[in-house]
Amino acid sequence: MTKYETVIGLEVHVELATQTKLFCSCSAKFGADANENVCPACMGMPGMLPVANRKAMELGIAAALVTNSEIIPVMSFDKKNYFYPDLPTGYQITQFFAPICRNGYVDISVDGENKRITLKQIHIEEDAGKLVHRHGMSLVDYNRAGVPLVEIVSNPDFRTSGEVVAYLEKIRSLLSFAGVSDCKMQEGSMRCDVNLSVREFGTHTLGTRTEMKNMNSLKAIVRAIEYEQQRHIDALNEGTEILIQETRRWDDIAGKSYSMRNKENATDYRYFPNPDIPPFRISKQWIEEVRNALPEPADKKFQRLTAELNIPESEAKIIVGSKNLSDIFDALQAKGISPKDTVSWIVTDLLSMETAENKSVDDIVIDCGKFADLIMLVTAKKINRSCAKRILKLIYTDGVEPNRYVKDNNLSMVNDTDLIEQIVMQVLSENPDSVKQYQEGNQKVIAFFMGQIMKKTGGKADPNAVKELLCAKLGV
Fold first, then answer.
1. The dihedral of CA 342, 334, 15, 24: what is its sign?
2. What is d(CA 9, CA 339) in angstroms, rounded to the nearest whole number?
3. Residue 223's beta-bridge partner residues?
4. DSSP 8-class letter at 364
5. Is residue 1 pLDDT above 50, yes or no?
C-alpha cells in the first residue's frame, strides 16, 4: 500500500478574448511582431493612467458564472509589487482584497468516478511581458504586457495527475464555449501553475509545497507532477524532508524540475489598493445580462446532439471537444446541411486534413459557406464524394469556390448509365483473369474493377451506379 499522498492545487491563467488590453487601447492580438502592440500606458510611462476594459469585466463575470462561483458585489484592483524585466511598471495590476468571485466549483469525471474541485477565487489581472533568450542575450517583448486574464485558483483538492488533466480539459471547455477565451495552450493563452506537496496517508497537515510555473502543455504537466511527487517522496524516504517552499522551473526536455527561487508569500508583494482605478459595482442586472448572453455549453450541446439529432456519442464527443469544431458544425447546420452529413464531413474528411498537417483542431480555418456548397453538390449528385474530398482540400488551402471549380474543370458526375455500362463491359473484357478470380470466390477484385472504371471516367462516375451495374454484369 502506498505510504504517501500527493496534494495538488492549481492556478490557471487564462487570457481573455478581448480586442484590446486591460487598461489601454493597444491590441491584445497574439502573433504580432515584438513590441508592436505597446503604448505609454502599458509601458508604465509617468502620467499615463489606466482605463479599465468593460469587456474584460464581462468576460470575468462569464467565467464566474460557468464555474458556479459567488460574484462579489463590489470588486477592486490592487498593485502587486515585484521587479522583473518583463513587468515595465514594477508592479502588476491584479485583484487581492476584492476579486471578482469566490467559492466556485467544477465537477470532473476520472475513470468513471465523479469528483468536485472547489475554487478559492477567480481574479482579473494584467499579464506580464515575455522574455526571449537567444545568442547569450535576454530580450523583452512587451506585447503581452497588459493583456487581460483571469487567474482561477483552486483549493488543494487534486490527488493525481489524471484529476489535474480532467480539470484543465473541463476548464478549457467551459471557458472556450462561453467565449471567455480561446484557451489555446500552444499559444500561451491558457497556462497553469502547479502547487504540489506530499504527506503521509491519514495526516491532515500539508507538506512543504513547491510551485512549477507557466506550464502550457497537458503532457508536460503530467510529467512534471509525476517527477515532482517522486522527488518529494524520495526526500521523505531518505529522511531529508523538504523544508524550503520554492518556485521551480520544469525542463520538459531534461524531464526534471530546477529550483528558481524561494516561494514568495503575500507579504512579499506588498499588495495595496490601486488608487488610479475606482472599485466596480457588479449589479444583479449586469450579471443577468451576461448570463442570458452565454452560448450553449459543451455538455448541453452533447446532450442535444445525441438525444435530439441522434448523433453517435463517439462522434458527438469529437464535435463538442473543440469550440472551433462546434462552431463549424453550427455554421454548416445554419446552411441547411443535415446533422448526419455535417458530422460525417467534419469527423471523416475535415479532421483527416488536420491530421495530415499536424495542426490542432483549434487552428482549423475554413469558409463554412463554401464547405456547405460542396456538401450540397454531393447531396444533389452533381459530384461524387471522392471528387468532393479533393475540392475540400482546395477550399481549405486556396479558398476555391466549389460550384465554379466544378464547372471550370468539368468535374460534374457522369450519370449516363449507357456510358457507364459500356465502360464496365470494357473493363471486364480487358481483365478476364480478374473475372475468373471473382468467379472462383475472390470478392476483393470488386475493388479492383471499381478502381479501373472510376479511372476511365476520370473519377466522375456515380460510384453507386457503377457498383450496381458491375454487380449485375458479374451476376451478383
1. positive
2. 41
3. none
4. -
5. no
Quick check: 328 pLDDT over 90? yes
Mean pLDDT, the chain, rounded, equals: 89
Query: How far are the Cα atoms of 80, 209, 262, 309, 377 from residue 268, in angstroms, in the given order?
Result: 9, 17, 11, 56, 65
Please answer whether residues 155 and 170 qualify as being in contact, where contact means their C-beta atoms are separated by less than 8 angstroms. Answer: no
Residue 19 · residue 59 · CB < 8 Å = no
Instruction: Map grid coordinates 471547455 to a residue.
Output: 173
DSSP string, 78-119: EEEE---TT-TTSEEEE-SSS-SEES-EEEEEETTEEEEEEE
> Could you give the CA distance from residue 472 to residue 83 in angstroms, rounded to a whole number?
81
Copy the grid coordinates of residue 134.
537567444
pLDDT at 418 > cutoff 70: no
Q: Which of 436, 425, 378 is nearest to 406 (CA)?
A: 378
Alpha helices in 52-208 (DSSP H): 54-66, 161-177
pLDDT reported for residue 412: 77
Distance CA 162, CA 345 (A): 32
User: Is the dihedral angle over the CA atoms 77, 39, 56, 92 positive or is it negative?
Assistant: negative
Using an 8 Å Cβ cutoff, are 454 and 423 in contact?
no
pLDDT per residue as tens digits for the range 161-196: 999 999 999 999 999 999 999 999 888 899 999 999
| Mean pLDDT within 214-226 | 90
Are 211 and 32 a contacting pair, CB within 8 Å?
A: no
Whole-angstrom Cα distance, residue 239 to residue 147?
Answer: 45
CA distances from residue 27 to 21, 22, 378 in whole angstroms, order as listed = 6, 10, 42
Asked if residues 153 and 120 have their Cβ atoms less than 8 Å apart, the reply is yes
Which residue from 435, 60, 460 is spatially nearest to 280, judged by alpha carbons?
Answer: 60
Whole-angstrom Cα distance, residue 164 to residue 441?
55
319: part of which helix (H) or strand (E)? helix 313-320
Cell 471550370: give the residue. 408
Residue 111's alpha-carbon distances to 10, 88, 301, in angstroms, are 21, 45, 22
Interatomic CA distance for residues 385 and 105, integer angstroms? 46
Segment (H or E) for 376: helix 368-379
Contact 457, 411 (CB under 8 A): no
Q: How far is 351 from 434, CA to CA, in rounded Å?
A: 36
Domains of the chain are 12-192+263-285 (no CATH), 296-408 (no CATH), 417-474 (1.10.10.410)
Comparing CA positions, the residue from 317, 326, 369, 374 lying closest to residue 349 is 374
Spatial distance between the Cα atoms of 5 and 7, rounded to a whole number of angstroms: 6
Task: Return the residue matching grid coordinates 455500362.
Answer: 421
Closest to 12 in 3D by CA, of 117, 127, 151:
151
